[in-house]
Amino acid sequence: MAYQSLRLEYLQIPPVSRAYTTACVLTTAAVQLELITPFQLYFNPELIFKHFQIWRLITNFLFFGPVGFNFLFNMIFLYRYCRMLEEGSFRGRTADFVFMFLFGGFLMTFPNLAVGQDEQVKGTFNPGIAVGHIYFFLEDVFPNQPGGIRILKTPSILKAIFDTPDEDPNYNPLPEERPGGFAWGEGQRLGG
Fold first, then answer.
1. Quick one: angle between helices 69-87 and 94-109, nearest 10?
2. Model pTM score
């Protein structure tokens, strides 16, 4: 019974929040079980570009440290706020939500190409706050200013992958075939 309710709660999480939270938990579990080490996950430009360890562009956003109070706090924070955004501001706009993640990841990764490893580790929280403010300004503030334009536009490839196409008002489906060839339910109205 508890398994079913936990499963239903898990499936009610919006898809991007569910995928990201699950990836973070699975990555941390893999480190805890010593299937991988944190050294295989961290952002290292030399290993990415010279040794083609491209996964490091993603995995550095999936590992929040060893299981403990900080990990639990981070997972609750991540789950709660991702879900609130996906169900609130980004409701029905999954591609835009994914684009926000990619934009934020790019802005947090790009400056790290120029700084040392110690600065990357120490500055993670502050760039996250700055990136959030930059996104908010470019998405919600600047376009609504006199002479403002919308700079951030979700690429159509993301819309094709993540958003359901709008229903075509001219679409006229073929009548469905009735079992047995009978015109079921097409009798006359009573009293008419």
1. 140
2. 0.76
